[in-house]
């Protein structure tokens, strides 16, 4: 009876279809069901075994569902049937089955979801005549047990002593030991639910008669990539529908991804900042790989986005997935650690990586990746725990790097707290700081959420005034404003959003805004005049101004270092030139302009070997600065000289300074191309080595 064709074979029959028929007939025998040909091929003469099945089962039940529940089913259990078809596609043919049944044969079936592990084991025992030694890891409560890997390794070692054929079930999160890889066993990837697999599964169930007349069923199904996100139970639940049309519609709904619900697309984002450019390039490369235009090893596989909280790092990562048309898997150390003790935390970590491997191609987003810590941390508290976490995380990163189709995007606030091994190329290929969003980025976020409620010109004005707020601030303000609109029974408007963001135009101090614009414009003009590197962005925020410059490498001569001091004091000099007096805006914390200028001047005298004392180095330059009046005088001279020089340069380009500041007040944020256009008439004012530093 083995090998009889199942009813309603589909067009373009896959090569493994005949083997699938064989497995399904074996499963029917195992469950005591009549062979499929007895139910469908009425003209065939029944065999003695057919007649026996008929006596046991009784009259052939009608295809319509009966109200009685005590009648025997003519169909196999759905999950077993689907798993059997997937195993047929995995082995490919009965020849491979026989090869795996030879004495001494070792066959590995990899890429198995934990939920499918027991199903596969059951089918191997009930639908295959070979009595394999089946090796599988321990599972507890739907996940790998705490010591699953170590016990799995011991079972593999023990299997070497035996001659019977071995089937090794390798679910996601379990690795093979080196000695087993060395013998190069037959390795089979457990088949995904492809269109061929799904159609074969449908052809053997209660929808088989509808499939014969369904026409272009294959074209109506979700894409094979989308179906990777579905578990076995999802597919079986969807196909319980009474009609084929309803089953296909259920599958399409389950795999549908709404961009409005899952975040924006890169195409919705404007601008040319480094992070956005890198994200677009990775997505473009990924699409080329999917189209067969690029090899996987030619792509960057990982991206680390770091910066202040709420700057839209995770938002950008989700946009990458939407633009590529692939799933986004998220995880993070906070989520993993919430599972419990170390073993639970590592189990959840492995499960996240396993999910990404299962549904590849996908984007794997790891939030708060800096929580991985560092083995170089001086804090010895819980160092053993930290080392185990880092070691396990590195192993997962290395394992997923070997799988095609998974792009890893890490997000964090403190990149300096991460272990160097995590940051190295190969684990994190690209590392980019994500700044606070500028007006264009905020406009894209506002448009994504509010385009149906507020006119675009109003959103653009709102975006300009909201510069300095993070993407998280905007998201929270939109939710709060919508809530207010509902409770007040009013239409959502700009004033509601301004109230939530505390940016009402009546509250703005225009003199302060102009001073901030002049200050930041001064830095930009000095940077262009001294050729210190392109200015990427300038912003006016509620807390002040921000400027982003890409520093260029130099020879570290005294004049190069003095130019940096001039740049630091460019904002202060611009205030003096344009407004007649300076403010405290250049001073304040250790990151302020004056702090940076002073730190650099102290280093000239105490650590660089370029000061009055010549080629000497001091271990504690700050103490030397405070304790030595002569050093203090020299530092002050450096700063005063630099501010005077900044003023002279700005006076030469005062018209440009005024135009740049005015544009900044109007737009609140400027990008590289806009800044370069405004600074194009600024001529370079390069330095020459100071005579006092010339060699004797």
UniProtKB/TrEMBL annotation:
Which Gene Ontology terms describe the biological processes this protein takes part in? protein catabolic process; proteolysis
Q: Which Pfam families match?
A: AAA (PF00004), Peptidase_M41 (PF01434)
**Where is the AAA+ ATPase domain positioned along the sequence?**
299-438
Cellular component GO terms, alphabetical:
plasma membrane
Leader sequence residues: none
What SUPFAM superfamilies does the annotation carry?
A: FtsH protease domain-like, P-loop containing nucleoside triphosphate hydrolases
Query: Which terms does the record give in the GO molecular function aspect?
Result: ATP binding; ATP hydrolysis activity; ATP-dependent peptidase activity; metalloendopeptidase activity
Full protein name = AAA family ATPase
Taxonomy-wise, where does this protein's organism fall, top ranks first? Bacteria, Pseudomonadati, Pseudomonadota, Alphaproteobacteria, Rhodobacterales
